[in-house]
Specification:
By secondary structure, this protein is mostly beta strands. It has no helices and 11 strands. Strand 3 and strand 4 form a beta hairpin. The chain is globular and about 50 Å long. The chain starts with 8 loop residues before the first strand and ends in a 6-residue tail after the last strand.
Length: 184
Amino acid sequence: MNPIIKDNYFCDVESHIFNNKIYLYGSHDARNSDRYCPLDYICYSANLNDLSNWHYEGVIYRKDQDPLNHDNKHDLYAPDVVCGNDGKYYLYYGLSNIDMISIARSDKPNGPFEYYGTIRYPNNIDFKTLDIRPYHFDPSVINDNGKIILSLGFSVDANIPAMDINEHNDHGLFIVELEDDMET
């Protein structure tokens, strides 16, 4: 039994400290599901001076909030959250079977988050036309003294059904710096 999370299946967890509290963000599995992460995003938090007392923050973002998921058929994969230079909190995530990183934004680290947009390339570059590009999967993001650094990517030796992995996007990890808009 997990000593922190007793009532949820919580995976792909990222932890961040904001305002003297630690927050856990992760994917949300369902008991006996045949899919990975089919539920909405949830969050847990604890004061740094008492890590024995964890608080369930509830649902912080629903998968039906993303316009790319209008049919609610895609699952929410491995999220991460960062505090932007504007003091707002940004949730980066991928939807199953969609080669794109989406973003949601909130005024608070525990949400609720609202859909904000998707990662885009400068000058409206269509990333699918690039010879080498990341597969937009499992983002990780940090604020390094005002520089917002996003890492993403995937690399496998086999074909995965419903994932468009090919010679253009199977190169593994990519690291990019985001502009102030948190999208570009």
